[in-house]
Amino acid sequence: MDTGYSSRRDFVVQGGAAFTGLSLLHAPFLAQAFPSRKGEEVVPWLDQPPDNPAPDEVRNLLRWEDLDSWVTPSDQFFAVNHYDWPVIDGETWTLEIGGLVRRPMTLTLSELTARPRRETVFTLECSGNHGFPWFIGGIGTASWAGTPLAPILEEAQVLEDGREVIFFGSDAGEEEVREIKMPQHFARSMSLTDAMSPDNLLCYEMNRAPLPQPNGFPVRLIAPGWYGIANVKWLKRIEVRDSRFMGRFMARDYVTVREERLDGETAWIESSVGRALLKSVPAKVTRSNGRYQIVGAAWGAPIAAAEVRIDGGPWVRATIDRSEQAEFAWTLWSLDWTDASPGEHAITSRATDAAGNVQPAMDDPRIANKQTYWESNGQVTRRIRVT
Ligand SMILES: Nc1nc2c(c(=O)[nH]1)N[C@H]1C(S)=C(S)[C@@H](COP(=O)(O)O)O[C@H]1N2
Ligand SMILES: [Mo]
């Protein structure tokens, strides 16, 4: 997908580190500009999310008040898993490329890291984020590095019939369909066309260090522009097939159910969660010398504008922080809240993308007629007390 967006900051270098003068790379790595003021204090939101009820599956959710850098430090990055958390030995690990290819391949970690390296700053959001009151921090932005997937599929020589590419993780569990119980690895697929996107990486580094174990060590797929679920961790095998893959995470789970009007009739449409959607949130409110500032993030598409509405008043344009940007990363914004009066207030944000699409309101039919919690990109409202 070519968005024509010019400020992408990913790049390919041969054989490892060749750092250029991009501001992302200024030392120390994580100290980028951030909309903040000297001596400011964070005013916590009144509507704090309930405790995470599933700590085995979901870890380390982002606390929005803590956001103070464009790139999320790895130890503050959330993690989601559906089966076990595999612990893999990078020395003995291999990646199989098979199925409808002329030349099946087995790649070791050192073979992958010897290939051309590319780094992309990408905001990874779980498609369930904002689907439950407790789940509002299933998002983070990291600098992911690895080797592009497309040249490897080219070398494997996909056969004429190859249409679908399945990515299998090492983690496994038991699944049941019509009373048939079967062991299954975590797996997601993409069309061959989507898999061949030059953006996709076989990723082995997060924020300039080996991938942490919870985030997929030693190698995961990074599919910039897609929801978290597509970014298969702990990769084990890539399999090319001639028909659509109908595993749990494509066809039974991570399926959005929505009532739509088609030709004057109501149709219930079931669709597989795929590409990221336009979204924004008010991240935090700060106070400095009695002056309030609202800081937020917007992502899911190239961002043209972010607006804020207080207590159902008019939409006010925030200032977009253009100092740190990448095609697939969130954009930070801020707004001086000049007339903050004592009492409780509701703060809502909405993003507009470069094509003019506006993040849907909660009563927009796309959100209101959605019956499942996936892909909850409706406008987010937070509550705060000004003293
Ligand atoms: N192998 C494997 N990959 C996986 C998952 C999983 O359970 N197993 N969870 C997916 C989901 S739902 C999300 S949101 C992202 C989360 O990536 P993170 O844990 O690095 O934040 O990983 C995806 N990749
Ligand atoms: Mo997810």
Structure, explained:
- This protein is mainly β and 387 residues long.
- The protein folds into two domains: 12-33 and 54-257, Sulfite Oxidase, Chain A, domain 2 (Alpha-Beta Complex); 279-386, Immunoglobulin-like (Sandwich).
- It contains five helices and 24 strands.
- It has helices spanning 109-113, 150-156, 192-195, 248-252, 365-368, and strands at residues 11-13, 41-43, 58-59, 79-80, 94-99, 105-108, 117-125, 139-148, 164-177, 180-191, 201-206, 209-210, 220-222, 235-241, 255-262, 265-272, 279-288, 291-299, 303-310, 316-317, 319-320, 331-337, 343-353, 381-386.
- The relative contact order is 0.17.
- The ligand Nc1nc2c(c(=O)[nH]1)N[C@H]1C(S)=C(S)[C@@H](COP(=O)(O)O)O[C@H]1N2 binds at residues 77-82, 124, 126, 169, 171, 186, 214-215, 228-229, 231-234.
- Ligand MTE is lined by residues 77-82, 124, 126, 169, 171, 186, 214-215, 228-229, 231-234.
Précis, in short:
With 387 residues, the chain is mostly beta strands.
Measured on Cα atoms, how large is the radius of gyration? 21 Å
Helix and strand content put the structural class at mainly beta
Helix content range of the residues, please? under 10%
How is the quaternary structure best described? single chain
List the helices and strands in order: EEEEEEHEEHEEHEEEEHEEEEEEEEEHE
DSSP E strands, number: 24
Distance between the termini: 47 Å
The level-1 CATH class of the largest domain: Alpha Beta
Shape designation: globular
What share of residues are in beta strands?
35-45%
The CATH superfamily label of the largest domain reads Oxidoreductase, molybdopterin-binding domain
- Which small-molecule species are bound to the chains here? ligand MTE, molybdenum atom
Largest sheet, in brief, is: 6 strands, antiparallel
Number of helices: 5
Q: Number of folding domains?
A: 2
In the CATH hierarchy, the third-tier topology of the largest domain is known as Sulfite Oxidase, Chain A, domain 2
**Average pLDDT over all residues:** 92
The appropriate CATH architecture of the largest domain is Alpha-Beta Complex
Low-confidence stretches at least 5 residues in length (pLDDT < 50)?
Answer: 1-28
